[in-house]
């Protein structure tokens, strides 16, 4: 009679060479998803899968900046004379923190952003971060630099480079107009509940933080490892992750996360429309146990082609009447499509002499990047590179001086600026960036028009601190991401066993409660999540591959009632006895059994 200690190893963090393994039947191991963001198109989820901890995106909710006063590039007498806020009964005096403007109350300090939840789990335990597109990585410096994170970030090259531009632009916007004073008293719960709306209803204000620095940005992005579409990346020998083209933006990805017997698909920010990126890879999503779905269109009833048509017609109408057009936009993404649309439109509309200005600290780099990432473009644009011909027509607009770009309104722009014109500039929130100057400059004339194309912000809230406003406002939100009809068709084709999604997708929009077509109706019903929720993922797991300690002698391959974190026992009948070869393995996370008699 011999007795042997029988350990089971579920994970290795070293590059070990495995010479033997067992496959166990009817194993029970938990898989969890932690939701750290309440914004469905700016997701941040953490997946605990096969003893690896994987963060899926780290979107930054910038809608919080709508509660703040704009940061003007030049002194604004109007904003500097706003009265401070005092409660009607005089018991609360926040004159230094809050200002009354156009019937609303705004915070008078540097704008702050709503960060992903940091208290739900220990973020220093995250092994890897998978980024799906450059809009979903804007919170990365907050995660990698201030939580003890020591892992690796995976992203495609366009996602990394354009994400760097967007972060650099954001930092530049903030540092150009520094505000020394900070506002904190209004955030106390007992005070906030007494404030007028919408400040009273602002959520998660305790998590709001000022913008990071370029030092934080550079340090965070140094942790990024580049990957290409369909490239398989092994994580600790336990999990394999693979990026797939999502069709939404340059380098945007969906991710496959799989082990020997389980498969999770992460679908975020995807598009089936024919625009400039590579088309979406749908077939690789098939046979998923769980599909995590996020990043659907924010404008499910707005057709992108129709919005482009409205954009062009309103632009032409304003220019012909002698007015100027202001287009608040990000420095990458939809602006490429807008410029391409205008390239085809301006000659037919007799607008060839109208100057177009693109103003951003990163304007030059953005326009250059769109031309050099040829392998990430759709086939039609890739083929132009070999003609040779630039894939985007804005190169020709620049060569013919119809499109000019500048880092800011200062310097060359001020001497070359002529009206009427079209200006593309940021930030779409109208709270910081060069757009604030043009709002002050053009807002008093009804000849001018502001055209909103970015869907991330309520245009009424964006305009609130500029009221009363004489300039015309046109809302043409262009969002090419999947709508509910497209995603329902996609799910029927790829047939995942279970779908997990934000709770917003499981019910109609509050303003359109009768529209059952604007929600997901699936069988089985999707599993909804919200900020700070933790879900147990519904895997039907029947097999597990494990490793055993070396030199344990003959071991039975039939082990029943295996439970994670509990002791295991061999029970009769013994089905088969195998001698195991010696293995080199690190013994982290070993679960020891009672003595097993053979």
TrEMBL record:
UniProt record, GO biological process: negative regulation of transmembrane receptor protein serine/threonine kinase signaling pathway; regulation of cellular response to growth factor stimulus; RNA polymerase II transcription initiation surveillance; snRNA 3'-end processing
Residue ranges annotated for the Beta-Casp domain, each copy included: 335-463
Family matches, as SUPFAM superfamilies: Metallo-hydrolase/oxidoreductase
SMART domains reported for this sequence: Beta-Casp (SM01027)
InterPro entries: Beta_Casp, Integrator_9su, Metallo-B-lactamas, RibonucZ/Hydroxyglut_hydro
Primary site of residence: cytoplasm
Presence of keyword Electron transport: no
Keywords from the named record: Cytoplasm, Nucleus
Entry-linked Pfam families: Beta-Casp, Lactamase_B_6
GO CC term (a single one): cytosol
Keyword Nucleotidyltransferase (UniProt): no
Similarity comment text for this entry: Belongs to the metallo-beta-lactamase superfamily. RNA-metabolizing metallo-beta-lactamase-like family. INTS9 subfamily.
Protein name: Integrator complex subunit 9
Organism of this sequence: Oncorhynchus kisutch (Coho salmon)
Native organism taxonomy: Eukaryota, Metazoa, Chordata, Craniata, Vertebrata
């Amino acid at each position: 009679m011999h007795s042997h200690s029988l350990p089971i190893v579920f994970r290795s963090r070293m590059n070990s060479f495995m010479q033997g393994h067992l496959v166990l039947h009817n194993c029970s191991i938990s898989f969890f998803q932690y939701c750290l963001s309440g914004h469905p198109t700016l997701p941040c989820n953490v997946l605990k899968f096969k003893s690896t901890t994987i963060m899926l995106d780290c979107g930054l909710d910038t809608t919080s900046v709508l509660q703040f006063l704009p940061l003007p590039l030049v002194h604004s007498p109007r904003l500097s004379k706003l009265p401070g806020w005092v409660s009607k009964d005089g018991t609360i005096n926040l004159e230094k923190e809050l200002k009354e403007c156009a019937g609303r109350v705004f915070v008078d300090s540097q704008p702050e952003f709503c960060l992903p939840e940091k208290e739900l789990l220990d973020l220093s335990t995250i092994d890897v971060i998978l980024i799906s597109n450059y809009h979903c990585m804007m919170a990365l410096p907050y995660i990698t630099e201030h939580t003890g994170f020591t892992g690796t970030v995976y992203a495609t090259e366009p996602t990394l480079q354009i994400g760097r531009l967007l972060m650099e632009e954001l930092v530049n916007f903030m540092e150009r107009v520094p505000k020394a004073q900070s506002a904190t008293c209004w955030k106390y719960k007992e005070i906030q509940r007494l404030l007028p709306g919408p400040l009273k209803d602002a959520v998660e204000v305790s998590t709001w933080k000022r913008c990071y620095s370029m030092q934080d940005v550079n340090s965070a992005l140094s942790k990024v490892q580049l990957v290409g579409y369909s490239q398989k990346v092994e994580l600790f020998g336990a999990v394999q992750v693979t990026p797939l083209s999502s069709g939404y933006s340059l380098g945007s990805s969906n991710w496959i996360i799989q082990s020997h017997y389980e498969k999770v698909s992460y679908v975020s920010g995807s598009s089936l429309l024919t625009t400039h990126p590579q088309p979406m890879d749908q077939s690789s999503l098939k046979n998923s146990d769980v599909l995590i779905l996020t990043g659907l269109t924010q404008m499910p009833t707005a057709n992108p082609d129709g919005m482009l048509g409205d954009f062009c017609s309103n632009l032409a109408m304003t220019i012909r009447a002698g007015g100027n057009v202001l287009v608040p936009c990000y420095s990458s993404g939809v602006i490429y499509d807008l410029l391409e649309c205008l390239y085809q439109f301006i000659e037919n509309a007799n607008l060839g002499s109208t100057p177009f200005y693109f103003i951003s600290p990163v304007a030059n780099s953005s326009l250059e990047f769109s031309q050099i990432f040829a392998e990430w473009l759709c086939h039609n644009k890739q083929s132009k590179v070999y003609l040779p011909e630039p894939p985007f027509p804005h190169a020709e607009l620049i060569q013919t001086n119809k499109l000019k770009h500048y880092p800011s309104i200062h310097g060359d722009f001020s001497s070359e600026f002529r009206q009427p014109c079209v200006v593309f500039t940021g930030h779409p929130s109208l709270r910081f960036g060069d757009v604030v100057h043009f709002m002050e400059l053009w807002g008093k004339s009804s000849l001018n028009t502001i055209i909103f194309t970015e869907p991330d912000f309520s245009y009424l809230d964006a305009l609130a601190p500029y009221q009363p406003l004489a300039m015309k406002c046109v809302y043409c939100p262009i969002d090419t991401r999947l709508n509910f009809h497209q995603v329902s068709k996609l799910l029927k084709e790829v047939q995942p066993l279970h779908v997990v999604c934000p709770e917003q997708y499981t019910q109609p929009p509050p303003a359109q409660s009768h529209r059952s077509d604007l929600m997901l109706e699936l069988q089985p019903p999707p599993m909804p999540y919200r900020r700070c929720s933790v879900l147990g993922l519904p895997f039907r797991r029947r097999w597990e591959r494990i490793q055993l300690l070396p030199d344990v002698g003959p071991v039975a391959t039939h082990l029943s009632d295996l439970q994670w974190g509990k002791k295991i026992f061999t029970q009769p009948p013994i089905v088969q006895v195998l001698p195991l070869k010696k293995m080199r393995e690190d013994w982290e996370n070993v679960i020891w059994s009672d003595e097993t008699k053979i």
